[in-house]
TrEMBL record:
Protein name, entry field: SDR family NAD(P)-dependent oxidoreductase
SUPFAM superfamilies xref list: NAD(P)-binding Rossmann-fold domains
Residues covered by region (Disordered): 1-22, 261-282
Organism, scientific name: Sphingobium tyrosinilyticum
Family: Belongs to the short-chain dehydrogenases/reductases (SDR) family.
Keyword Oxidoreductase assigned: yes
Length: 282
């Protein structure tokens, strides 16, 4: 069963507790004059990243096979493409350079999930998942690199997952594809470290997006997260924006986890002798 559902891009996450209902205020201008590509920018983490980069002053090329529900045409353009097609990544980079005259940031975010018993995995399912989760990432980086090297600067963030750092039940293909993103990015980072181009990885935990909307038993998932909740897409967008920014100027080849504490645990159970845990926040 595919975890990427056929749902409208207008999906809105569930309500947040009022304590966390603070609107983010962009650091106006820090990306003024910068140009970014965000793949998978029509939905979820990608859409939040587009908004965040625009708030910070960047012009953004949204690349997605779907059109976003809305976007501010002044700050962003849409390049509608299926990134599993071999030439799509090169074309998206050419579009960004043609429309905006340069390319500073690439966020390889488009991806899909899958849930399968390993004995049921078909070649078709495996290759379809790898085509978007890692092949498209490689092609995007390969196409962007000459421009970034030529200008002597650039930053790439590849969106992997905590599922790239360990195993999940029934998610072998996803785990393998995201682990490939992590280690591909490390190699790329050292190969272009002296060209002024930084490459980093974000590993989100459970985020409220259309991809995870169909997961049943939400409460059980939240209980397994030390912070007791999933995250909103903008909480990952801010991590991505940080890695793209000069605040991360000495970071390359880093794998930044944003998972509410999931990977900080060994997985061993909590002693009943400890104080009772505060209730889940959602
Ligand atoms: N949501 C989570 O809990 C979570 C956790 C860890 C990692 N991630 C990763 O974050 C990334 C974004 O996930 P999301 O939850 O925002 O998902 P999402 O389904 O909301 O958005 C994914 C976007 O990618 C686009 N896309 C998928 N295949 C494409 C293709 N072949 N060509 C062009 N565009 C394509 C989709 O149209 C969609 O707009 C993915 O790489 C995912 O693996 C998500």
């Amino acid at each position: 069963m595919a975890l990427t559902p056929d749902v409208p891009t207008t999906f809105r996450p569930s309500q947040e507790p009022s304590a966390r209902k603070q609107e983010y205020r962009g650091m106006t201008g820090r990306f003024e004059g910068r140009v970014a590509i965000v793949t998978g920018g029509a939905s979820g983490i990608g859409a939040a990243t587009v908004n965040r980069l625009k708030e910070d002053g960047a012009r953004v090329l949204i690349v997605d096979r779907n059109a976003p529900a809305s976007w501010d045409e002044e700050g962003a353009c849409l390049f509608q493409a299926d990134l599993t097609l071999p030439r799509a990544a090169a074309e998206m980079v050419a579009q960004a350079v043609e429309r905006f005259g340069r390319l500073d940031f690439l966020v390889n975010n488009a991806g899909m999930g899958a849930l399968n018993d390993p004995s049921d995995e078909t070649d078709e399912q495996w290759f379809r998942l790898f085509a978007i989760n890692i092949d498209a990432v490689m092609r995007g980086c390969r196409a962007a690199l000459p421009h970034m090297r030529a200008q002597g600067s650039g930053a790439i963030v590849n969106v992997a997952s905590i599922s790239g750092l360990g195993g999940d039940y029934g998610m072998a293909a996803y785990n393998a594809s995201k682990a490939a993103v992590v280690n591909y990015s490390r190699s790329l980072a050292i190969d272009c470290a002296r060209d002024g181009v930084r490459v980093n990885v974000v590993c989100p935990g459970l985020i409220d997006t259309p991809m995870t909307a169909p997961i049943p038993g939400r409460e059980r998932w939240h209980a397994a997260i030390p912070m007791g909740r999933s995250a909103q897409p903008r909480e990952i967008a801010s991590t991505i924006a940080f890695l793209l920014s000069e605040d991360a100027s000495f970071m390359t080849g880093s794998v930044l986890v944003a998972d509410g504490g999931v990977t900080a645990t060994t997985g061993q159970p909590r002693s009943p002798n400890l104080r009772p845990l505060p209730p889940l926040t959602r």
